[in-house]
Write a structure and sequence with these properties.
By secondary structure, chain A is mainly beta. Chain A has two helices and 17 strands. The longest helix of chain A has 34 residues. Chain B has two domains: 92 residues, no CATH class; 147 residues, Sortase, Chain: A (Beta Barrel). In chain B, the strands form two sheets. Chain B has an eight-stranded mixed β-barrel with strand order 2-3-4-5-10-11-9-8. Chain B has a two-stranded antiparallel ribbon with strand order 6-7. Classes of the chains: A mainly beta, B mainly beta.
């Protein structure tokens, strides 16, 4: 039986192989991802005048970049532009705080014009067995409802707003419909609401151009762990079996009995001899 | 294309048509980006009138990002530039498609755990939490449980957690009772739903009193992929009918 370890003693490989904390736990930098949600336009992205993303395609997600806290000026140009002097979107100033997790989305506004929005991603811990679902409307389309399994779970979501839900981990059949209706304009599509993860779904594209679609980003490491594994209730392999101490009593009693019988036998014999 | 003279550092074939007419340079393939020091040194050489050929080796400049490939090795015709600006490095930023189809697939599910040398051969059920905040376990000690929200045998990181009762009043002593005395190096196999067998060897066996168990290490989803088997053991509290310790076996993938 292995020695029972007391508090504070390292438990061998159990602790030695444990990993480092997830990246989004870093508190001295901001994490920034960039989503390209403008259909039909390959772009370059400049941050503070420096080319940071080159030939960035619609529907792609870049990052996360770790950046010291501060305000960053982002300009998005056509992909063959020589520099950031004539951006298609921006320049926009993004104030980033340390310890936070952001997504800058280049997208169409409700009227169809390219724009950019800075979203702050919720990276607070969720309970064990739960996942977070964030839905963001970044499409050239009017307000929508988000349906899960055909039932509206988010209503009247407009561009460029977001809505958050905490759900039991699992797969959701999600669709997007014009608010107040149930006829899907996007989906239905299976979205895995992963446990301990913020699953961020973007409705993007243009209704009039018939290219509405869903984009997904995940931010993990938000899980809680079970706080125990109760795995035994009968005591059959206990290292402190009751027979151990009771055994002394039984053994002692047996010994006394044997001695008593022997003593009686010897005494009786002597008396018998003496009587002869 | 090597960038000198303060021209934009990012190179791609599509840009060749936009070069200034007085210049030409052979566009063999995407070129490596030079660090500022090397570019500065070459510029100094050019300014001093030396037409040094570009003989740099290719590869990735870690400061510059992910471009690879040898630089052009022919000497281009060039005009010395006044006030050269060191090229800015484009950081290597990870990029992926955000389409739904690109989401990672489900974790591979372990369905059986076997350790022939210590008499373990039992099915595994995927579980979450019991009522409350502890991991759920099947009541039969001959059926093990896998924490479904953590890593699986194919996960790139993290601990696959498999647990079983050591005993029960209804079912007597279970196979996991053998873990407490299992020697380091014992082979353990996890069979997954896709038919694959994942082999591990025991690296450590610990009996830790329950209030001291580092649950964040047990349920760690980061770090080296590994298998952690958990059951109960140690002394038993006969009043509360519970063991005071967890037996925790850490196993690493077999080479």
């Amino acid at each position: 039986m292995r020695k029972t370890l007391a508090v504070g003693v390292a438990a061998g490989a159990l602790v030695a192989l444990a990993g480092i904390a997830p990246a989004n736990a870093a508190t001295d930098v901001a994490q920034l991802s960039v989503l390209h949600a403008v259909p039909g336009l390959t772009v370059d992205v400049y941050v503070n005048g420096d080319l940071t993303l080159d030939n960035f395609e619609p529907g792609d997600l870049a990052g996360p970049l770790e950046l010291p806290a501060g305000t960053y000026t982002v300009a998005i140009t056509a992909s063959d532009a020589a520099d950031a002097s004539s951006p298609a979107i921006g320049p926009v100033d993004l104030p980033l705080e340390a310890g936070k997790n952001y997504t800058a989305a280049a997208h169409l506004d409700a009227a169809g014009a390219p724009t950019a929005t800075l979203f702050t991603n919720d990276i607070s811990t969720v309970g064990a067995g739960e996942g977070r679902l964030t839905v963001r409307h970044v499409a050239a389309a009017p307000a929508v409802d988000i349906l899960a399994g055909g039932t509206a779970v988010i209503t009247n979501l407009s561009n460029p707003d977001e809505s958050l839900l905490t759900l039991p981990a699992g797969t959701v059949s999600a669709s997007v419909a014009a608010t107040g209706t149930t006829d899907p304009v996007i989906g239905p599509a299976d979205v895995n609401v992963a446990e301990g993860t913020n699953t961020i779904v973007y409705a993007w594209g243009s209704l009039t151009d018939s290219n509405l679609a869903l984009a997904v980003q995940t931010v993990g490491g938000l899980h809680s762990n079970p706080d125990g594994i109760p795995a035994g209730s009968a005591g059959l392999v206990a290292t402190n079996q009751p027979a151990d101490s009771a055994g002394w009593w039984f053994g002692g009693a047996a010994l006394a009995l044997v001695l008593g019988i022997s003593a009686a036998a010897v005494y009786g014999t002597r008396r018998a001899e003496a009587r002869r | 294309m090597v960038s000198l003279f303060g021209w934009p550092t990012v190179t791609r074939a599509a840009r060749t048509e936009r070069l200034r007419p007085a210049q030409h340079r052979p566009q063999h393939r995407r070129a490596g980006l030079l660090g500022p020091v090397l570019a500065g040194a070459l510029m100094l050489g050019l300014l001093s009138g030396c037409a040094a050929p570009l003989s740099t080796t290719g590869g990735t400049d870690p400061a510059a990002g992910g471009f690879t490939g040898p630089a052009s090795t022919a000497a281009p015709a060039r005009v010395p530039s006044p006030a050269p600006v060191p090229p800015a490095a484009v950081p290597a930023v990870p990029r992926q498609s955000a389409s739904l189809a690109a989401l990672p697939g489900p974790v591979s599910t372990p369905v059986r755990v076997r350790a022939a040398s210590i008499g373990i051969d039992m099915p595994i059920e995927a579980v979450g939490l019991a009522d409350g905040s502890a991991m759920a376990l099947p009541s039969n000690p001959a059926v093990a449980a896998w924490y479904r929200y953590g890593a699986g045998p194919d996960s790139p990181a993290g601990a696959t957690v498999v647990a079983a009762h050591v005993d029960s009043l209804a079912y007597d002593i279970g196979p996991f009772a053998q873990l407490a005395d299992a020697p380091v190096g014992t082979e353990i196999v996890l069979d997954t739903a896709d038919g694959a067998a994942h082999r591990y060897t025991i690296a450590s066996v610990d009996s830790v009193e329950k209030p001291s168990v580092p649950w964040a290490s047990v349920f760690d989803r980061t770090g080296q992929p590994r298998l952690i088997l958990v059951t109960c053991g140690g002394e038993f509290d006969y009043e509360a009918r519970r063991y005071l310790s967890n037996v925790i076996v850490t196993a690493v993938p077999a080479p």
